[in-house]
Write a structure and sequence with these properties.
- By secondary structure, this protein is α/β, with parallel strands linked by helices.
- The protein is built from 9 helices and 7 strands, in the order βαβαβααβαβαβαααβ.
- The protein has a 7-stranded parallel sheet with strand order 3-2-1-4-5-6-7, sandwiched between helices.
- The two termini are 32 Å apart.
Length: 259
């Protein structure tokens, strides 16, 4: 019950890691604003939270559109009569493609959702949190934002931007008592990674499942991460137990990346 009485918003929480984060924060008794670009998916997550006895409100939000992101704090005040104190900028997309074959459309699509969407989420949350003098923002980065990969050039660039933005906003918002951090997962066993495995296999001429198995074989702990692994770390950063942590990126990679 570490988040009892607080309102948390999680973008892209209709499925995958975002859904697990929303459910995990609800277990800590936070009230949830569940957003997704597809309202039906957001409704599914919100319904599951309500079945477990917590409050949740679903909202359709395309994070590339600032006016839609601005609906989040407004919804919190309207539905819960309370400001957003925890903002998780999770919404993001992936694409596997040879760096030498990237088009401007590929670049714009990934950078707009991942980097621009996170920027908008932080700006909107910061404005609401500055008025109350407290709050925490958590962004979804990736170990690909720390390392290079010929099939993840634009994705890695978008996540590197998130890591950098996290530091800048942490410095800008520290005087207001607002903490800003990010998490950087490695391979996480989700439907999205299964899709990446299929695309990777096609590009490399491998059998489906081989890229994923190879990637897991490189993890020191010997397994893929789970969405719950990520959600647990996000929940920790959202609580007062992490009160002296800001501007950091915590890697959730089973030892794949050690800094």
């Amino acid at each position: 019950m570490r988040l009892s009485g607080k309102v948390a918003a999680v973008t892209g929480s209709g499925k995958g890691i975002g859904r697990s984060i929303a459910l995990r924060l609800a277990r800590e008794e936070a009230d949830l604003i569940v957003t997704d670009v597809e309202l039906a998916l957001a409704e599914e997550t919100a319904s599951e939270i309500r079945k477990r006895g917590q409050n949740a409100h679903a909202l359709a939000v395309d994070v590339v559109d600032l006016s839609q992101v601005e609906q989040i704090p407004t919804a919190a005040e309207r539905v819960f009569d309370s400001p957003v104190e925890i903002m998780v900028n999770n919404a993001g997309i992936q694409q596997i493609k040879d760096a030498l074959e990237l088009t401007s459309e590929d670049w714009d699509r990934v950078l707009n959702v991942n980097a621009r969407g996170t920027l908008f989420g932080m700006q909107v949350a910061a404005k609401a949190m500055k008025e109350q003098g407290r709050g925490t923002i958590i962004n979804m980065a990736s170990i690909m934002g720390r390392i290079g990969h010929p099939l993840y050039a634009h994705y890695g660039a978008s996540k590197a931007a998130i890591i950098s933005l996290t530091k800048s906003f942490a410095l800008a918002l520290a005087p207001y008592g607002i903490r800003v951090n990010s998490v950087g997962p490695g391979i996480v066993d989700t439907a999205l990674w299964d899709l990446m495995d299929t695309q990777w296999a096609e590009l490399e001429g491998l059998k489906k499942g081989e890229p994923k198995a190879q990637r897991i074989g490189q993890v020191p702990l010997g397994r893929a991460g789970t969405s719950e692994d990520v959600a647990n770390t996000v929940a920790f950063l959202a609580t007062d137990e992490a009160a002296y942590i800001t501007g950091e990126c915590i890697h959730i990679s089973g030892g794949s990346l050690m800094l």
